[in-house]
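Structure ticket #2291
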Amino acid sequence: MCFFGALRPSDSVPGLRKDRDMPTVTMTMVAREAGVSVSTVSHVVNGTRPVNAQTRRLVLATMDRLGFQHRPVAGSLAAGSTSTIGLAMSPSVNPALRELADGVEEEASRRGLQMMLVDTHDDPVHEARVVANLLAHHVDGLLIAPTRQWEEGTLKRLRERNVPFVVVDRLQDARADQVGVENQGAATSLVEHLMARGHTRIAFVGGWPETMTWQERQAGYVEAHRRRGIPVCPELVSDDNTGEEGMRKAVAAMLASAEPPTAVFAGGHSATLGTLRAARAAGLSIPQDLAVVAFDEVPWAGVADPAMTILAQPWFAIGARAVQLLERRMHTPDAPPQTLRLAGEIVHRRSCGCDGSARS
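Resolution: structure written out below.
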């Protein structure tokens, strides 16, 4: 797992294991080595869903080779020897979340908790189904990066069953424990960086306006304009799009307008991909014709041409802190909810027009 300058577990999260002589082999490591998804490894480990026989053999062989401690949840529950937590998110849609899963798994293991992971595929119907499956396996608590429109399905069921849960990444306007990155200040810094390079027509392509995460990133975009005395152009703000294709269409429409943007602030992984595809289709070069900055470090960001200027989220630390919050909630159900925001790190590369690589 590459950390791209994000906070390292032993440095950023109080209480995390500092002994690296005997590193824990995690499901994320097994998945990467076997070339499968983390959820597939979780299904093999926990028996939560049938897995193709050939894939199962590959995963088991990889576990043996890496020294993964194979301890199925069913056996642990029967023995009454451990508490089990679920993790519901969409690493198949946003690969950056795999590092969050690694942070969850390591901190859970350190605290004697067993983790079960399911992939929501960023679909509310599928999310409700896989979370119901976790609840059927009697998890003691749940970590979730919610899909859109999760309130009527997943959230309602969690409230009805009185299951302790923590929201990660996609912060909600809900009374719940939550942990994510500090959004507004980081967004302001990214947009001001573009302005310092002479850009005044900067587009913002976000995602879901009902989440606090996107609201805070848009607020940071607006704050940068206020500080610089540059009016916000409503036609350059598009924050109600679904998936990469929705983002691509939004950016394509802006680029085809009479006064197109000269720069784009992409508010997430799908927005970044949509922006790059729209620019390519329009025959634009980055950063010569269109500068781009974005939230979320992903594996290809540093090797893209040009390399992407991004806000690297401390995914590992977010995952670890989420486990800490969840265990607290499991033991003290009446405690007031907490929302934690961890600082990210801006990595300056060439997509914004910078010449080299720097961090701030």
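Closing remark: Confidence is low (pLDDT under 50) at residues 1-22, 74-81.
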